[in-house]
Amino acid sequence: MKPGYKRLAAIDMGSNSFHLLLAEVSMRGFYPKPRIVARYKHKVRLADGFNQQFELDHDSVQRGVECLHSFADQLLRFNPDVVCAVATAALRKAKNQTQILPQLEQALGHPISVISGEREAELIFSGVCAAAEQKGNILVIDIGGASTEVIAGRPLSPSVLNSFDMGCVVFQNHHFADGQITRQRFEHAVNQARQQVSSYTSAYQAAGWDHVLGASGTFRALAEIAMAEGQTNLTRDWLAQLIERCVQTQQVERLNFVGLRDDRKAILCGGIAILMGVLSELGIDVFGVTNGALREGLLAEMVATETA
């Protein structure tokens, strides 16, 4: 390792994907900024394993264990000075969390913190601010596998933070479980999302925003579709047209938009239904996409702590 540097590893165990971020940070200077060395992502789909008792089944846990074994191998090679691992909505909600967590920690070789929804929202906002470098008021939307975070505020100073009990995997399994797509199913899903946000609409609108940024997989999938189709702006009207095109295909397996990856096809409808609900309820017409997310927020906090 280079003298005067520390190696950091941030692990984000999301409800859909697990992420490992490896970075180096100089211990010199007033405003040290981490250098990302490597990123690893595995589609674990943990939230796909919920049964009727809201317990995670054996197969989903095993997918998590296998992923963390591979992360442990990367950590062994990188030899970080500090490792921080957090788990989000799927483990937070799992009734059998106490049985699962030791298995996951043993596979990773490090302790795992199951964080609250508010803490998740804080880290997401921090990560988006670190990556986007926006000025003015920001509204951030992060649609995860089992929860959706909506945060309003100024950079590094969130004023309204909420974690809602809805995610792309959970919504997909609830509203489109058999793979059939209908207008009525979309309407039910969108309305459910609107209802969850509606109690906080006035608080978000009072905070205000100059920019709306989306984080994580659903937004990246939309950006890739839009780019492939030559769509320059991400708007609510365009999203409504995309939903109508999904309805016309009638089946999830027949979704074939240019730019849509196969690994995103299975949960696209759940994610865009949530997004349409949030946009409609808050009166948002245009939104953007950011690369920042929870793991970048976790890394930013680690840097601040280690270099203080």
How would you concisely characterize the structure shown here?
With 308 residues, the chain is of the alpha/beta class.
Describe this structure in words.
- This protein is of the alpha/beta class.
- The chain folds into two domains: 5-115, 2-Layer Sandwich (Nucleotidyltransferase, domain 5); 133-289, Exopolyphosphatase. Domain 2 (Nucleotidyltransferase, domain 5).
- The protein is built from twelve helices and eleven strands.
- It has helices at residues 58-78, 89-93, 97-108, 117-132, 168-175, 183-198, 201-207, 217-229, 236-249, 262-265, 268-282, 294-306; strands at 5-13, 17-26, 35-43, 82-87, 113-114, 138-143, 148-154, 157-164, 211-215, 234-235, 286-289.
- Helix 4 packs across helix 12 and helix 9 (236-249) packs antiparallel against helix 11 (268-282).
- It is globular.
- The two termini are 20 Å apart.
Descriptive labels:
308 residues; alpha/beta; Nucleotidyltransferase, domain 5; 2 domains; six-stranded mixed sheet; five-stranded mixed sheet; 11 strands; GppA/Ppx_hydrolase; Ppx/GppA family phosphatase; ATPase_NBD
Question: What's the β-strand tally?
Answer: 11
Enumerate how many helices there are, as a single number: 12
Fraction in helix: 40-55%
CATH superfamily of the largest domain: Exopolyphosphatase. Domain 2
Q: Could you tell me the mean pLDDT?
A: 94
Report the portion of residues in β strands. Answer: 15-25%
Strand order of the largest sheet: 8-7-6-9-11-10
Can you tell me the CATH class of the largest domain? Alpha Beta
Unreliable parts? none
Question: CATH topology of the largest domain, what is it called?
Answer: Nucleotidyltransferase, domain 5
Report the radius of gyration as a whole number of Å: 19 Å
Largest sheet: 6 strands, mixed
CATH architectural designation of the largest domain: 2-Layer Sandwich
Task: Give the structural class.
Answer: alpha/beta
Distance between the first and last residues' Cα: 20 Å
The coarse silhouette is: globular
The tally of structural domains comes to: 2
InterPro entries: ATPase_NBD (IPR043129), GppA/Ppx_hydrolase (IPR050273), Ppx_GppA_N (IPR003695)
Protein name: Ppx/GppA family phosphatase
GO molecular function, one term: pyrophosphatase activity
Organism: Idiomarina aquatica
